[in-house]
Amino acid sequence: MLELHRNFARRELVCGWLAATLFSGAPSTLYALATGSDPLEATRAAGAMLVHPASAPPILVAAAAAVHFTVSLFWTVVFGWALPRRGVVVWSVLGSAAVAVLDLRVIAPAFFPSLAALAFWPQFADHLMWGACFGLALQLCRSTP
């Protein structure tokens, strides 16, 4: 059976997942606030992955939270299996950059037009933030040296 957390303890992965999930939306939100754009645009787009885009705002926000939670958990499992313990922050950021291109240039245009319509660079920055938070948390929560 494939062990899903080959290089990291479950506690380390939970720590990384929580940090990445909680803080990864900061760059695009700050960008939206700084430019006078709608800071909930990305949230509504993520929610539209599960529910109709014209759904009530609380429904879209709840759906976005579920999407973000689940997608972040998926990548936590993938990264937990694939990343080396050495240089984990750098590898995590590089991996998240690759995921950003996959998400934003391949998957979103094919399946999620509301995500594909978002500005690329703020969303790319969110992915990099996810990788940085994930890698830093793994490093800080390390069980063994």
Describe this structure in words.
With 145 residues, the chain is mainly alpha-helical. The chain has one domain (17-140). It is built from 7 helices and no strands. The chain has helices at residues 10-23, 26-35, 41-47, 57-82, 88-111, 113-116, 120-140. The radius of gyration is 16 Å and the shape is globular. The two termini are 26 Å apart.
Summarize this, please?
Helix content is 73%, strand content 0%.
Order of helices and strands: HHHHHHH
The coarse overall form would be globular
From the alpha-carbon coordinates, what is the Rg to the nearest angstrom?
16 Å
How much helix is in the residues? over 70%
* Number of E strands: 0
Into how many domains do the coordinates divide? Answer: 1
- Give the amount of beta strand, in percent: under 5%
Annotation field: number of helices:
7
Q: What low-confidence regions span 5 or more consecutive residues with pLDDT below 50?
A: none
Broad structural category: mainly alpha
The largest β sheet comes out as: none
Report the span from N to C terminus.
26 Å
State mean pLDDT (0 to 100 scale): 94
Spell out the key features of this protein.
single chain, 145 residues, mainly alpha, 7 helices, 73% helix, globular
Topology:
Blueprint: H1 10-23, H2 26-35, H3 41-47, H4 57-82, H5 88-111, H6 113-116, H7 120-140
Helix pairs in contact: 1-4, 1-7, 2-7, 3-4, 5-7
